[in-house]
Design goal:
Elements lengths: L3 H19 L8 H10 L2 E6 L1 H9 L23 H6 L2 E7 L8 H21 L4 E3 L3 H9 L3 E8 L8 H9 L2 E5 L23 H13 L2 E3 L5 H10 L5 E5 L13 H10 L2 E4 L3 H4 L1 H20 L4 H14 L7 H14 L5 E3 L19 H10 L4 H29 L5
Parallel strand pairs: 1-2, 2-4, 3-4, 4-5, 5-6, 7-8, 8-9
Helix pairs in contact: 2-16, 3-5, 7-8, 9-10, 12-13, 14-15
Length: 416
Amino acid sequence: MINVRTAAFTSLLVLATTLAAAAPVPEPQVSPRVDRILKEVPLIDGHNDLPWQYRERSKNHLADIDLRKDESAMEPALHTDIPRLRQGRLGAQFWSVYIPTSMKGAEAVQATIEQIDVVHRLEEIYPDTFAPALTADDIVRIHKQGKIASMIGVEGGHSINNSLAVLRQFYQLGARYMTLTHSSNNDWADSATDDPKNNGLTPFGRTVIGEMNRLGMLVDLSHVSPKTMNDVLDIAKAPVIFSHSSARALTDHPRNVPDDVLRRLKDNGGIVMITFVQGFVSSEARKSSVTRDGEEARLKALYIGQPEKQKSALEAWDKEHPAARATVKDVADHIEHVIRVAGTDHIGIGGDFDGITTTPLGLESVAAYPVLFEELIRRGHSDETLRKLAGLNLLRVLRKSEAVAGRLRTERQAAE
């Protein structure tokens, strides 16, 4: 017979050991290195969905969420606020102006403009923290001022309603990248998570890429199919980005980047901004999520028209089947894989905070970026690699895109 007290103590010891392994405690000799690196170079995150949280939670009434306060206790939890941004040493943020693919036509255009308006209003409400940035030099200048450079990324080509004029006006409003698709295909590009329809890019899709290069708007290949990725790399005049993706060789999720595409980034000059989405960085977390989705579908079919019964049954299932969790180590593994295949010039960070409901252990909010850098330091990575990861690579991509745009605007007029 096992002694109850001994068994309980052993269980607690195992739990404590597991948690300690998942969320490393900052080491005294490591933290000063991280502080120095992030003081020298702006830490740039490629993707944060806070604007959508305002739309979902308060219908864009910005006073309902006070970013000056720690909002981690909100239900559901909010990942982003000013105290935690400062703790995370963030230097620049691309705010995603996401709208769902169910929005079409003029409704999609209006909703995107409303999301852009949220970003500009946040800059006005919190001018001591956020300053609008349109160029790489803006980011560097704002970071030196001790503020966070605020930038805009359009998430999903459906937002332009098949209009180059709308694309150009989004650029004028401050958008500096556009994700070509979201979860579904649009009329001119195939998504990674939809059945192929366009065989990658259509002729109009190629025109969109050319116009983005002429404007100086980064082409974001997160969410697109491998065929679309390769079609873009065949014609792009400027470096591309993946604003929030990871390595498919480690986690076989269609939202991740295959190795053959990673190798092509060497010639293109683009970067993969490694994301913190659990199902993208951990195969076990992905399997756990898929299994739960299947159970949820089964319960909906079993208890048709009985939502309360569906909910209680799923809650009971969740208690019996704890979800697998990714960790900061998984995220570091994906960074190292991209370095091995593409090189240190092709990595960045795109957390997807407030676009996800759960996060890897150790990366629970925007306060946690230093934890990732500490993990990479423990693995022996140099300061130069960490500076590139933090922001030097993205600054290089922006500057190259700006230079290409300057040349192309002298060579041709706006596309019709």
